[in-house]
Amino acid sequence: MGLARVFTVIGSIVVLICVAGSFLMDGGKLLLLWHPGEFVIICGCAIGAFVTSNPPKVVKSAFASTFALLKRPRYKREDYVDLLKLLYDILVKIRKSGMLAIEADVEAPEKSKLFTEYPRIFADHHMVEFITDCLRLMVGGNLDPHELESLLEYELDTHHKEAAEPGHAVQRVSDALPGFGIVAAVLGIVNTMAAIDGADTGTIGRKVAAALVGTFLGILVAYGFVGPLATAIEHRAREEGKAFEVVKMALVASVRGYAPPVAVEFARKLLWSDVRPSFSDLENHLKGKRKEATREPGAKEEAA
pLDDT tier at 11 (50, 70, 90 boundaries)? Predict the structure, then answer.
């Protein structure tokens, strides 16, 4: 399990330990907090409101994004190295053979050696589609660099907004949870008032305590779990969106006339520091690609 996934689990455990531990330290009993009816009201209302207020696409994406937090990020350092190498290969082919030389790669990426050489990148069909769409514009669009950059900016803006929707939807649920906790508390007080005639002090106290648990749960779940979950989903969406910005930068720089190594360097500069390969590391990878490309067929057989 990666470090980010460990922190996601550890954070939730810390919240539980601190709340339950302090309650026990003050002499409380955990069974006093166990009121299934309160859970049903709060969680049921939250899920119902979530489904009502969001289209099915966002609902499915929110659940998928939540479970994705327990998986490795889509793009880690080695994946970005592969992406930069793929962009370098594409730009070198364009520089050597002309723009029309990549037309077959664009139309059938599953048959293209450029794409299939990097299986982790090729497995991301959204990324492959984005790259091929951009290249298709470059091949047949006759766009100048400013027009291409503007068009890609619009596409990335749409992508980023769509990727951010699950996090925003979960955050709205977090904002509503304290209110649902109050609903549960009010219903508990109604039950208490209905049973007050002839009830002893202990019975009334237990019913009031059960009502207050509703407010407690609403606030705890909102600020201790669902709110942080929404923030984590937003962070993951921003991290995964960076790969598309890298592609845009490299292709726009190429259209502006920069050589492939320079265009790829522009793209490398966009990466977050924790996943950005160093200049020398990326240069060594690209040099390896250049040596392999210029090696004679006889030398390849001899090396094999």
Answer: confident
